[in-house]
Amino acid sequence: MSAILETVKQTIVDGDDDGAVAQIEKALMEGIDPVKVLKQAIVPGIERAGELWHDNVYFMPDVVLSAEAFKAAMKAVEPHLAGREITKLGTVIMGVVAGDMHDLGKSIVIAMLTGAGFEVIDLGVDVPTETFIGKIGELKPDIMAVGCYMTTTMLELKAMITFLKDNGLRDKVKIMIGGVPTTQQFADEIGADAWGKDALDAVDKARKLMGA
Amino acid sequence: MGIRGLLLRSALPLLIRVGTMMAKKGSAPFTTKITKGITLDPRDPKTWWMVYAAQKQSRTPIMAIMPDHSMFLGGVPARKFYSDARVNVNTTAAVAAYYGFDSASGGGDTYNYEAEALGQKLIYSDNAMPTADFRDPLIKEHKDLAKLKAPDWLTAGRIRFILDVIKLNKVLGYKTGKFCAPFSLAVTLRSYPKLIKDLKKNPAFAHDLFAVLSDEILPSYLKLQKKYCGVRAATGADAWAVFPNLSLDLIEEWVVPYSERLFNNCLDFGMMAMTAGGGDYCEERLEKFDKDILFKCFAIQKKLLSNMPMFVLGTGPWHEYPLEPVVEYLTPYKEKGIRIAIVAYMNARLLRDGPVERIVDNIKRFIDVLGRDYNLAIILANIPADTQPQHIHAAVAAAHTYGSFPLASNLDEVALEVPERESFQEYAEKMSAGTGLNI
Asked: In this complex, how many residue pairs, one in chain A and one in chain B, have their CB atoms less than 8 Å apart?
């Protein structure tokens, strides 16, 4: 790997968003293929942050900063990827249920899923069920990932899946849930297809849902 | 001795009393005292619990954090539960009486009152507690620090509501104020990613933010709590500062100093304001459980609790963690004859998912391992809204049966009977003489 790609990767591992953007611009100016920047620097950067978290070297603040740097890096490189064929594992729409404003976990999961090769459409926080349903019809995603972070808002998930069933939409999309109060048992109870314990687990489960 | 020394001395008796209470055999932290002779008033759910609590029992106390569950069980809309002090406390007291908890206090929504009063936008919904709109933080840039001025607390946001909750809690024997600790308040006003970036890349700005919260905003609020509510101690919630939400280095650098600074500022007017949560070990993946990190968390807790002989096994998955490292850490205290107070939380997800047998086994394990040599109190950690009441009745029955003093030498030989109970609605009908929950 060229030195500059190594530097880009390291800025993401270090959670240096400004540095990541500057180094990506430099790399592109030097004529390095943006796909190479993506696959050999940006993605390995967020993957390395995940490994460090897994090994108890990185903790939440480090991972959040890496996710922020990843987000900034993607924003910098994406305009240069237009028209390029990039294999994706699948499309995910992701949001936090209505009444819930917690987006920390969502941001990390989006970074990790994107790094793993998924196209992720972020619907934001405090997302009404109708919006999720509208996006299923409009975008035809493979997976709908829904987060909730309070024991009251987790009940929205139950209502959401019931609504999808009642309206014949349940089979149109795989549903993955996550968030602090949720468990595998809760996912089973409400009829979700998968439960992500944390961001890395969410990537594994999403891959499995896609048969990858 | 200067004026500061005199003021410190004036607060010292309270500190000593708390410390001594926790060091005596048999006593436990957070148990409330209800005067005997309380008369049951079917129209006042507070008395349902007070009459029950007045029957003094010698046992390991069990209590709960349960705003969501109380609201759900009582069928109270969120907007009312989190804005009407009487409704909040009466509902909580009724639910505490239903389960037979050894302490009861209303509240919830702990992280938002001060922030809302300062101007932070909150999102309200029909079913959930209000939460800060992190998309629109009050402190977007350095110049926004000028917005942080102590408001007229009595009229700002929902401060009056929580002050009235604290006053009503005193009726229930819970005489402690509540506030949001400096670190968690900074997160609410700034958002977590931005604040973390500040800590790493713009520490001068972060210090300015923490200083104004610890030196001006929170002391002025706690001064009012003391005056309006008549409390001399308050606990500050700090869930954003648990490990691994923050690394140990960041907790040491940012949470401990400003918590101590706030504590000292409040001692100046005779209020003991301690933050709780920083140093709570909450690693979610069991394979990452690390004894050394746990010990460092305990060391941080000691600093945050001003060296009081007390440790908290908080909201992490303690039903999965081994307890041997805890005993190893505490053994030197035991050998010195210090009877440490342990506050052990029962995991919220376990309480919701069950099964009953697993809940009971974990209560029994806490008591067996920690209830003999230490002053143990068990807290059911934020009971999820739709938890089956039978799970909670089982937890309480287990605590009261296995935790009855003197503890049996072999808890396996103690018979446990989990009572078949009526629904909460049937209970409320019975207690209110047919009128239902009077809130």
From this structure: 99
